[in-house]
Amino acid sequence: MLARRFPEAKIAFSGGDAGILYKSGSEADGAQTLFEALGVAKDRLILEAKSRDTYENAAYLKDILTRSGELGPGKRWVLITSAFHIPRAMGAFRQAGFEVEAWPVDYRTRGRADLTRPFDKVSEGLRRVDAATREWAGLLAYRLRGRSDALFPAPRPVAVAGCDLAGPSANASTSPPAIPCRPNP
Prior knowledge:
With about 180 residues, the protein is of the alpha/beta class. It has a single domain, classed as Rossmann fold (3-Layer(aba) Sandwich). It is globular. The longest helix is centred in the C-terminal third of the chain and has 23 residues, at about 120-145. Mean pLDDT is about 85; it is low at about 165-180. It contains 5 helices and 4 strands. Strand 3, helix 4 (about 85-95) and strand 4 form a beta-alpha-beta unit. A two-stranded parallel ribbon has the order 1-2. Strands 3-4 form a two-stranded parallel ribbon.
């Protein structure tokens, strides 16, 4: 969706093979195949295929973007990942010195309404508990290892004149900007 909305924007994807015993190939290779199949030109893609975890995603991608001149003053990058993973990812990217704007996707609940709804299957509840436990453990481990800037990282407000990818702030008294948001070309 964003690739079509911003046809000049570069798309950086970070993901290697996190397998310890069994290797399955890098996530970046699969992403390249998918992006190209969706019509994204190869010259828009920046791929990082060595990382094995979220902190390495940030550190290795920052290095590639810095060396290629795609990171620096006036450059904006949007971090797109599962909503449940955004806090740890934001903390890891900030700790690596790579400021990004959060764009959570893949929400697993509909919010407070799900607190009173039973699961169709016990296994669905267990799956969600497993995912949540992994992220909570990851938050603690990243903080203790110095791979996150906070135990509970939160996105920082976007400070770009006339544009906020997250929408108007709670205390904004003006209407949304007339100029559409535009990430890095």
